[in-house]
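REQUEST ID: PR-0412
SUBMITTED BY: lab tech R.K.
PRIORITY: routine
TASK: structure prediction, single protein chain
INPUT:
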Amino acid sequence: MNMHHAHEPHHDGDATLGSHGMLVVGGDVLYLSHLPMFMAPHNFQVILEVGVDDAVGSVLRSHQHVVPGEPYDTFIPEDFPMSELDPHGSGPRRTSMTGRFFCGHFERKGGKHPPLAERAVVTVQSVVHFHELDVQAQHADDNQLSYLCFGRGGQLHLAHHITAAPDFDQVLTVRAVPGTATDLRGDLLPDDEATLEKFFAERFASAEPVNTGGRTDNPDHRVVPPDSVRGVFFATAPPSGSHGFTVELEATREVYMETGELAKPKQSQG
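STATUS: complete
OUTPUT:
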């Protein structure tokens, strides 16, 4: 729909150059979550807040999901180096991408349907999370389940914190249950509900780590609707300023779940 060209910095010889497919998350505030694998150049967990033009945005918000088993949208941009999204990188910074939006997964059933939008320009408004995955790391059986919490405008999302193979990629929409926020000792926070509502609507422009009260880090123990779990935000200060807090998080929708692509390290692709 939008035919403008994306910003394309010079990237000869960059080892992170590749086809980097992404999951579409959100609505009024739109995010892209990279679909990673434990192989170069795809070994990155990256979440972006992005913008699209009005026509593309209208299609993404209003179209019917017609792909069985794939109740989500994906975006496949033209090849680019993932390093250009690294907020701490020393090279050129990517500010936009051009690609196609699909209903469903672009490499699976969704790819058999016409794109929702072609040559769509996506502007990178902020890098919500960026982490390179260690392709040699092995998943410990006693790891605790943890997520990355992000979202603005009154909608919160959890992305499973990917660490080592075998692992899983999961994105959820959740809500913070009013009246359940406490400090790490278990005492109710002194902040009033209006203050906390504003806090949860605005605080998570960047992803913040959250633990889930002792669940083991494997797909069988993941958070799924209608689960309600005690989220422990050990690195996030609430408005009252205490060091960390907890709140009941209610899962309202599982947007995406994938195990196969992260089951084990694979040989690198060129």
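NOTES: The mean pLDDT is 92.
REVIEWED BY: pending
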